[in-house]
Amino acid sequence: VLCVCQCQELDFPPGFQFGVGSSSYQVEGGWNVSDKAESIWDRYILENPDGIRNRSTGKMACNSYRLWQRDIDMVAEMGLDFYRFSISWPRILPTGFSNRISEDGKNYYNNLINGLLEKGIQPVVTIYHWDLPQRLQNLGGWTNPLIADWFVDYARVLFTLYGDRVKTWHTINEPWIICDFGYVFLPPAISDYAVGRLLCNKHVLLAHAKAWRLYDTEFRPKYNGQIAIVNQLTWIEPAGQGDEDIAELAFQDTIGRYTYPIFSKEGGWPQRIQKIIAKKSKEEGYDFSRLPDFTQEEVELIRGTYDFFGMNHYTSRIVRKRRNDETIHTYILQGSRELEIVFETRPEWKNTSSVWFKEFPQGFRRILQWVKRSFGDIKIYVTENGYASDSSSLEDYNRISYLRSYLEQMLLAIKEDGINVLGYTVWTLMDNFEWIDGYHSKFGLYYVNFECPNRTRTPRLSAKYYASVAKSHSLNIPDQDKYIVDKSC
Ligand code: PNW
Question: Which of the four, 28, 47, 402, 477, has the lowest number of CB atoms within 10 Å?
Answer without folding.
Answer: 47
